[in-house]
User: What shape does this take?
Amino acid sequence: MNGHPTVRRTTDDVRPKPIILEITMTHHSNAHSKSKSVLALVLVISIATTGCSPNWINIALQDLPVLTQMALNIATLASTFSQQQNTADLAVIQNISAQASRDLNLLLTLYHEYKASPNTATLAKIQSAIDVINQHLPALLESAHIANALLKARVTAAVNLIVATVNNFAALIPSRSQAKPRMAAGRLPRAMDLKREWNDQVCTPDPAVVQTSLCILR
Assistant: This one.
């Protein structure tokens, strides 16, 4: 009409770019989804080969310093009593305290080593150290023959609390045939729970006890 030729769009001009864009976006989305799936699989494999999550290690590293302090405080129990101290009782209690401190410090060191470099050799050493604690402390307690009944009850409660907590650590360690840790025998106390249990069971006020402050964990 105006002298200019009319240019009619062919069918090929209508949708080529949107179609290409849609296909490209779909391809990119699928590739991204596959990439995320592969990453998730790698993480699962990585976690499984390193003994599941490090939570079982962190629990032990959180609680072991408290147990070590308990072991040291066992040595102070005899001096908290107002009655005349029995030299033999004092010696055996200090022996229990020293042995518990050595064993728990070794266990703490092994957990740190395993966290820094997970390997089956260190894991075996951790399990062996726990076995030693289970053998040493009850045996020392049984052979102690503490004359003072109340003092014996306090030392027994202290040793039992330490041994029970360490055994719960053992229950959380993944076995070689499984990635996930086993369940603990009971509710595993946290550091503050352990201190409260210690204070309730070992440092309970009594007329025979004159220096409770030496025993209490804060």
